[in-house]
Amino acid sequence: MCANSGDLTKDGEISSHELLQKHLYDLKAQGIQTYVVPGNHDINNSHARSFHGATTKQVKSAQKEDFARIYADFGYNQAIKKDPDSLSYVIEPVEGLWIFGLDSTRFRENNMKKDPIVDGKFYPQTLQWIEANLIEANRQGKAVIAFFHHGILEHYTGNATFYPEYLIENFQAIAKMFAFYNVRMVFTGHFHANDISMQEFNGKVLYDIETGSLVSAPSPYRFVTLKDNKAFITTSIVKEIPSVPDFQTFATEYTKNGFEVLGKAVMNKFFVSKKDQDILAPYISSAFIAHYRGDEMPQKDQKLIPDSKELGMFGKLVLHKKRDLIINIWHDLKPQDNNIVLEFK
Q1: Burial class (CB in 10 A: 0-12, 13-18, 19+), 339
Q2: Collapsing DSSP states into helix, strand and coil, what is residue 177?
Q3: Model-level pTM?
């Protein structure tokens, strides 16, 4: 089976969802059943566009009903439980294992005249539904795995401080609840990093297994094998595509440039000079690219941030505000990220 933790489309265009549906049927024809949940890009998105050369035009974005209809054969028709208040469901692909496909998005709050909401949360009714079904799973002695879009554990020190929108609202309490009801693995993807983090709650360990996106270097995908109370996790990357044989070089440069453009756009708001932007941006992009690849660790004597004396006043201000973020991203939290065996009692 294959699970996708959201952001199935660029901005929720119905035509994009329908195109993906065709590809998922191709996988199904090869014996690979896929299960999906929505990400913040996928539903009621004001950024939905059609592209005609350099010209774009706003088009209709998928709504909740469209998503459930298009992906009916990829989770919703197989569900043994469905949440009436969200696009969450439970499946039992093999006897004894319940998989919770959860909707952590806030699409119902989106306004088509404003930017879509990036943050995630479980609404009160959905949270009650989740807990009720976790209780039932425990009562029946089922093993439980969950997958949804937003992170449930911090993936580097300061994650909640610098980028709270990438963690589900009240993530500490929800993580504690999941651990209490014997959920051991949650698969997420919002941050696009290939990273695994863990936390222990009263002797019970919860893993947040975040998988990077195919549209961001290194374009990873994971294989997870469950056997003998162990999860064998391996990571592969897309090395080439027909139009770009040396795909990894292309993808890394593309992602690096993207980070630098985003970083400079933020620095513009703080009146940072172009000279200082050119100094700071490569340090920012290097840190994020390392985090996206997983198992990040700086080389010995590697310079992680520039000398402040190289910068003007506003450049120094940005460096002061963001230095901890850059340094913390470089220092990976336990456990390993790409290839690991997780052992469960």
Answers
A1: middle
A2: helix
A3: 0.96
